[in-house]
Amino acid sequence: MTSKQPNVRWTREHALIALNLYCKLPFGKLHKGNPIIIETAKRLGRTANSLAMKLCNFASLDPIQRARGIGGLPNVSQQDRQLWADFLEDSTTLGEESEELIHNLFTKEASKELDFLDRDNVRTEIRPYPNGVPTEGTATVKIRRGQQFFRQSILNAYDLRCCISGIGVPSLLVASHIMPWRDFPNERLNPSNGLCLSSLHDAAFDSGLITLNDGLCLVLSKRLRSYLPQAALDYNFESFEGTPIRLPEKLAKPDPKFLDYHRRIIFQK
After folding, report:
1. Are 209 and 230 in contact (CB under 8 A)?
2. Model's pTM, two decimal places?
3. Which one of 73, 75, 143, 265 is least enclosed by Cβ atoms within 10 Å?
4. How far is it, in rounded angstroms, from Cα 261 to Cα 31?
5. CA nearest to 160, candidates 197, 204, 212
6. Distance between CA atoms of residues 181 and 106, nearest Å
7. pLDDT, tens digit, 9 for 90 and up, residues 116-172
8. Angstrom distance (rounded) from CA 134 to CA 41
9. C-alpha dist (Å) from residue 248 to 37, 95, 120, 253
10. What three-state secondary structure class fits 31?
């Protein structure tokens, strides 16, 4: 007969790791049989059931899940409510901190980042340095951790599909910022400042060739239209004009204020 695993107190660090994991797993994978949950719980010294319950608690606080009528477990702790509120208030700080915690839980190699996009196992990979700077300074590592958290969270929120074209190849997808990363440091890891786009649509969005209107429908700029007709442009852009984007399944929809900024400042009318 095996002894029962002792109850382990939920520290802030453990709760942050759980929040990070919640951001990277779809709702249907928040169960004790998920290999990622089993492995993470083992490294935390917890049971898989305990970790799965914590993830479901965060689901009950997620506004998109609640709007869809999907709830987590009742009686969510005040600690969970406060951590979720803190994340919404300062996603950049908590995103970087939680990514560092979960990174160190799985690997001590600073040059590697964790990839959860397989959804059934955790991979480590070497990610490009921010701005191509090959240094392991504290600030640079924090930026890399934050970028990884944002990418994994946004791609997962959109179910690993470009919200415009539906392309579902992770290596071709980008967690695109609505308001530029370089100009708005406080919104860098804000889920409502992100869109999951293919590399092609990300380049067009960043350069202002396309934008989204108040109804979250694709709008083409006059500059992009000046290159029509071209078969590739017709297929990848004009065919989606006026079509609503795919909405995220968790965390946050695109913020209307951020999209308004993109239309006024970046979009090439």
Report:
1. no
2. 0.88
3. 75
4. 39
5. 197
6. 28
7. 888 778 888 765 544 444 444 556 778 889 999 999 999 999 999 999 999 999 999
8. 33
9. 22, 18, 21, 6
10. coil
Two tokens at 145? 């951790």
| Share in percent of the chain as helix, strand, coil (round to 5) | 50, 10, 40
User: Would you call 196 helix, strand, or coil by DSSP?
Assistant: strand
Amino acid at 131: N
Nearest one of 190, 191, 249, 246 to 30, comparing CA atoms: 249
Concatenating the DSSP letter of every residue in 71-128 gives ---SS--HHHHHHHHHHHH-HHHHHHHHHHHHHHHH---TTEEEE-TTSSS-EEEEPP
Contacts of 215 by beta carbon, 8 Å cutoff, 6+ apart: 244
How many CA atoms are closer than 13 Å to the CA of 150, on its beta-carbon side? 27
Question: Bridge-partner residues for 197, per DSSP?
Answer: 174
Residue 220 bridge partners (DSSP): 210
In the block, residue with structure tokens 């992009």: 224
Amino acid at 91: S
Q: Which two tokens stand for residue 42?
A: 């083992």
Return the CA Rg of the chain: 19
